[in-house]
Design goal:
globular, alpha/beta, Rossmann fold, 4-stranded parallel sheet, 4 strands
């Protein structure tokens, strides 16, 4: 998928809370392995922190993504929060929207135990293939917090006086990445952040981007997200 594939969901967010939505066309693996994709997102986020109000009439308020986009959104938010420049580390998001994200590239338990025939969207084999394409270098440690946000030192961040933004985590029960969402949201809460977790019974990976009515429970999630955006904006 590319940035244009997100247009329908971004339009929903935009209409719900009168926002301007920006989609990042970051470089993709395997042609551009780590750290290309994350660095593109960091550059865009830093530019928006400095220029969004001047260019778009309002500061950066929310960030989010689905699957790999959830992974990159979490990395980018933590990159800003832990930045040595207070211009970025002091920046306050209104909220994060993290849907079925990949938060541990070394694999959480459901990656090994999730077995469906046929596989629903992704499975352990496809996750291994994607991770290898993304990292490539044997020197890349999948438990490096700059690669897997689950291993970020949240407690040191909050001990330094910084705080995590409110975050919505969603995932379906028929998703190989379910534990990623459960584990990441738990660490978010343990570090004092507001973490709202929505688990959708029977939903596969990517459910929120499916055509309306295809996956039961999707409309309820979209309604909740609309409410969240309006409350936090």
């Amino acid at each position: 998928m590319d940035e244009e594939s997100q247009d329908a969901l971004l339009k929903h967010y935009t209409d719900a809370a009168n926002l301007v939505s920006i989609s990042v066309g970051y470089r993709l693996a395997p042609e551009h392995p780590y750290p290309a994709g994350p660095e593109d997102c960091y550059d865009v986020a830093e530019w928006l922190v400095e220029n969004a109000e001047k260019e778009f009439g309002a500061p950066l308020k929310f960030m989010g993504g689905e699957s790999a986009g959830g992974h990159l959104s979490a990395l980018t938010a933590l990159h800003l929060l832990s930045h040595e420049n207070p211009k970025y580390s002091d920046f306050k998001f209104k909220g994060l929207l993290l849907h079925f994200g990949v938060f541990d590239l070394s694999s959480t338990p459901t990656t090994y135990t999730f077995k469906r025939s046929p596989a629903l969207v992704i499975d352990r084999e496809s996750m291994t293939h994607s991770t290898n394409a993304f990292l490539q270098s044997p020197a890349s440690d999948p438990k490096d917090p700059k690669i897997s946000p689950l291993y970020f030192d949240f407690l040191s961040l909050t001990a330094s006086g910084n705080s995590l933004p409110p975050a919505v985590f969603t995932c379906g029960t028929e998703d190989v990445l379910l534990d990623d969402t459960i584990f990441m949201s738990a660490k978010w809460q343990m570090a004092g952040g507001e973490a709202i977790v929505k688990i959708v019974p029977g939903a596969p990976h990517g459910y929120i981007m499916c055509p309306p009515g295809l996956v039961p429970g999707t409309e309820e999630i979209l309604e909740f997200l609309e409410k969240f955006l309006k409350e936090k904006v």
